[in-house]
Design goal:
Elements lengths: L8 E5 L4 H13 L4 E4 L7 H6 L8 E4 L2 E4 L1 H11 L12 H27 L3 H26 L12 H7 L2 H11 L10 H11 L2 H7 L4 H10 L10
Parallel strand pairs: 1-2
Antiparallel strand pairs: 1-3, 3-4
Helix pairs in contact: 1-3, 1-6, 1-9, 4-5, 4-6, 7-10
């Protein structure tokens, strides 16, 4: 993998985090060598507290000693800082970039937000409410994929793009969620394009490389032991 313009690249993360997975996917796609540092989120390192003093959460990318926080921001930074390393993740056209950023915000606010609450809900009634909101948001996202993919199978069209990376980070968790709650949010009978997208994304080389640690059964056990406590760990 290519180096980071001669400057050391570090990633502070947590193995189960879909937000950290986003960053790993972007680094892999750009061919950037980096040092991964697993954080114990019950006993956060001084480096994490110093690098992200506002939220004290992972992921944090440190490039040349300078920290960058928040997964969306980090993926955009990687795309810009290592633009010569591989094909750009964000489109070159300003309007298309704006559209991609709009759907990125939608994914985090309207899809991942309620989806996480499905895992954290304390009662069946609460889980049903959050599941309904997630299904409604996914229906809209299916329309977003139609607009972005231009008849191709990915949000980026022929090649993996920014939105593919952001949504792709949660793919193992989608399988884990179905085992935990019984909800298949990317059901082919309801959102065929997203179901096809997930199947295709799972088989990409970048996804295989990043997701090898995220065994679905292990994620299920992690969710039951950690996420159900409601602890926020990453962004």
């Amino acid at each position: 993998m290519a180096g980071g313009k001669g400057e050391e690249v570090k990633l502070l993360g947590a193995w189960a985090s879909p937000y950290v997975a986003r960053v790993k996917l972007a680094l892999h796609l750009k061919g950037v060598s980096y040092k991964y540092m697993e954080e114990d989120l019950t006993n956060k390192s001084e480096l994490l507290l110093r690098s992200n003093p506002v939220h004290t959460m992972v992921p944090v990318l440190i490039h040349g000693g300078k920290p960058i926080c928040e997964s969306q921001v980090i993926v955009q930074y990687i795309d810009e800082a290592f633009h010569a390393a591989a094909k750009a993740l964000l489109p070159a056209d300003p309007y298309e970039r704006a559209v991609a950023r709009f759907w990125a915000a939608y994914i985090d606010d309207k899809v991942l937000g309620p989806w996480e609450m499905v895992l954290k809900a304390k009662t069946g009634k609460e889980r049903a409410v959050w599941a309904r909101r997630t299904f409604e948001a996914v229906d809209v996202l299916e329309e977003g994929l139609v607009k972005c993919c231009k008849g191709k199978g990915l949000f980026g069209g022929d090649d993996i793009g920014y939105l593919d990376v952001l949504l792709g980070g949660m793919v193992p968790w989608l399988y884990a969620t179905e085992k935990i709650s019984g909800h298949n949010f990317f059901d082919a009978s309801k959102v065929p394009l997203l179901a096809s997208w997930m199947e295709r994304f799972t088989h990409l080389d970048a996804a295989k490389a990043v997701f090898q640690e995220q065994d679905v059964d292990i994620l299920v056990e992690f969710a039951r032991s950690v996420l159900l406590t409601g602890a926020a760990t990453s962004s």
